[in-house]
Amino acid sequence: MPRKAYRIEINFSWCKQCGLCYWICPTKALVEGDLLYPKIDNEDKCIGCMLCENICPEMAIDVLPKEEVKTEA
Question: If we measure between CA atoms, which residue out of 1, 5, 10 comes closest to residue 53?
Protein backbone atom coordinates (compact mmCIF):
# COMPACT_ATOMS: atom_id res chain seq x y z
CA MET A 1 0.00 0.00 0.00
CA PRO A 2 1.51 3.36 -1.01
CA ARG A 3 2.33 5.89 1.65
CA LYS A 4 0.20 9.04 1.76
CA ALA A 5 1.80 12.20 0.45
CA TYR A 6 1.56 15.50 2.32
CA ARG A 7 1.97 19.15 1.46
CA ILE A 8 3.47 21.65 3.91
CA GLU A 9 2.20 25.21 3.77
CA ILE A 10 3.95 27.96 5.73
CA ASN A 11 2.50 31.42 6.24
CA PHE A 12 5.74 33.40 6.45
CA SER A 13 3.92 36.60 7.44
CA TRP A 14 2.84 34.86 10.68
CA CYS A 15 6.15 33.03 11.32
CA LYS A 16 8.29 34.43 14.17
CA GLN A 17 11.41 32.33 13.33
CA CYS A 18 11.30 30.44 16.64
CA GLY A 19 12.67 27.26 15.01
CA LEU A 20 10.39 24.85 16.86
CA CYS A 21 9.00 23.36 13.64
CA TYR A 22 12.32 22.30 12.15
CA TRP A 23 13.67 21.32 15.56
CA ILE A 24 10.82 18.83 16.11
CA CYS A 25 10.48 17.47 12.54
CA PRO A 26 11.39 13.74 12.79
CA THR A 27 12.20 13.32 9.09
CA LYS A 28 13.83 16.73 8.55
CA ALA A 29 11.34 17.63 5.82
CA LEU A 30 11.59 21.09 7.43
CA VAL A 31 15.04 22.53 8.05
CA GLU A 32 16.48 25.88 9.12
CA GLY A 33 16.49 28.32 6.25
CA ASP A 34 17.64 31.90 5.79
CA LEU A 35 17.17 34.22 8.77
CA LEU A 36 15.94 31.28 10.90
CA TYR A 37 12.78 30.85 8.81
CA PRO A 38 11.72 27.23 8.21
CA LYS A 39 12.57 25.85 4.80
CA ILE A 40 10.87 22.88 3.15
CA ASP A 41 13.88 20.72 2.35
CA ASN A 42 12.05 17.75 0.86
CA GLU A 43 8.27 17.64 1.07
CA ASP A 44 8.34 13.96 0.04
CA LYS A 45 9.94 13.15 3.43
CA CYS A 46 6.87 14.46 5.30
CA ILE A 47 5.00 11.63 7.04
CA GLY A 48 2.07 13.79 8.15
CA CYS A 49 2.79 13.53 11.88
CA MET A 50 1.70 17.19 12.25
CA LEU A 51 4.21 17.86 15.03
CA CYS A 52 5.30 21.07 13.30
CA GLU A 53 1.72 22.26 12.88
CA ASN A 54 0.82 21.47 16.49
CA ILE A 55 3.92 23.05 18.08
CA CYS A 56 3.81 26.30 16.09
CA PRO A 57 2.77 29.06 18.53
CA GLU A 58 1.71 31.31 15.64
CA MET A 59 -0.31 28.64 13.77
CA ALA A 60 1.72 29.46 10.67
CA ILE A 61 2.06 25.87 9.40
CA ASP A 62 -0.50 23.61 7.76
CA VAL A 63 0.18 19.98 6.87
CA LEU A 64 -2.36 18.73 4.35
CA PRO A 65 -2.78 15.57 2.29
CA LYS A 66 -1.66 16.39 -1.26
CA GLU A 67 -5.08 15.60 -2.71
CA GLU A 68 -6.85 17.95 -0.26
CA VAL A 69 -7.30 21.52 -1.40
CA LYS A 70 -7.28 24.22 1.28
CA THR A 71 -9.94 26.90 0.83
CA GLU A 72 -9.69 30.41 2.15
CA ALA A 73 -12.50 31.30 4.55
Answer: 10
